[in-house]
Write a structure and sequence with these properties.
Elements lengths: L1 E7 L4 H13 L5 E6 L4 H8 L4 E4 L1 H4 L2 H4 L7 H7 L1 H11 L5 E5 L3 E3 L14 E5 L10 H4 L2 E9 L2 H16 L19 H4 L3 E3 L5 E3 L1 H4 L4 E4 L2 E4 L2 E2 L2 E3 L4 E4 L2 E3 L9 H25 L12 H12 L5 E3 L2
Parallel strand pairs: 1-2, 1-4, 2-3, 6-8, 9-13
Antiparallel strand pairs: 4-7, 5-13, 6-7, 10-11, 11-12, 14-15, 15-16
Helix pairs in contact: 1-11, 6-8
Length: 317
Amino acid sequence: MNHFVTAGDFAYLFRSITLIESFLKQNSQGKILFYANDKEAGPAMKEINIPGLTVVCFEEYATHAWTSLQGKRSTAEFCQTGKPIALQHAMQTAAEGDWIIWLDGDMMFFQPAEKILPINDCSMFFTPHHYTASFASFESSVGRINSGLVGFKKNEEGQTALNWWADLCLDWCGSIPEENRYTDQKYLDDARNRYNSVCELNTIGVNAAPWNTLEREVSSREGNIYIGNDVLIIFHFQGLKIINRNFFNLYPPPMRISKEAKKLIYDPYSKAMRSTIKRVTTALPNYNKGFTPFTWPQRLRRLKRIILGQDNFIFVD
């Protein structure tokens, strides 16, 4: 069986649920698990009650080594440190040979989830950034591999590699890049030098994102979305801000999102997010997390960008 793992805190429910619903909508083969990164997220997710989802509350898997870092690391750094810990917990109940796959919460499936799995036999798989020209300079600071989608097989080497990653993240998971490390991510650049059975997924359609999509052609053919010549399976919506339930800032300037990318990728996500927001706020009437409202200076800058044709916003009615 394939075990697909994502995590989020109480403020991240909109994104996590949109990912989970896309997994279920695609009739994906495997198990989807949500790991709560704080004490509020687990009970809230159970209250929302998504059939087919396994919810793991914070107290069920949080280790002392990890919880001792609360208050010493930023919220983002703390959650990133917990990523391999959630995978370790999921691996405990998996069968030998099962895949345990991490998914960042700000993603959405456009194809069944099992299509991301490597064709070749291996014990772990990673997704290179596949940077386009405007993003290539980031590789030296944030790494060649993106940690938003990684997989470890339950076998000796897969478990060893996952434990290696978890130990490194507990030791350091800073958001300011250093020579050989950046958050939970840059450590993974070294995995193929340490382990024998490593696959890297070389299709842009798996963990597609602004850094490898905004300068490539996006099209639709025969019912599939393509980025260049690769079918889009899962997209990573890095940089997207939820202003309110109808209004989304897709990506910060000066990068521009093409009309085709807006129509084929961002519009479906925004509509799915709008539906999620309605579902969450209906189940939890007092919930007011997850939004990034505009200040007045930001509103004025937005008006300027609209006038200059630099607008990356979507309004969903």
